[in-house]
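Entry for zinc ion complex. Fields follow.
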Amino acid sequence: MEEYREIVSDVLTTAGGAQAWIEMNLSGYLTKRCSGCGADEDAEALPSAMQWLSEHAPACAERQ
Ligand SMILES: [Zn+2]
């Protein structure tokens, strides 16, 4: 069974037309996600995760 995660950011549309967002699991761990390039990376803190999101969405041209 997949771990429960909650989306804690806006879901942004990327340059490639995919979607990027930040998730948090029940333990409070943050994950940076992008459906375009397949990003699924741990994030240390919300401010840096939000910065990644705002920079990644306009820069990611991949679409799966
Ligand atoms: Zn991406």
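NOTE: The pocket of zinc ion is lined by residues 14, 20, 34, 36-37, 39, 56, 60, 62 (CB under 6 Å).
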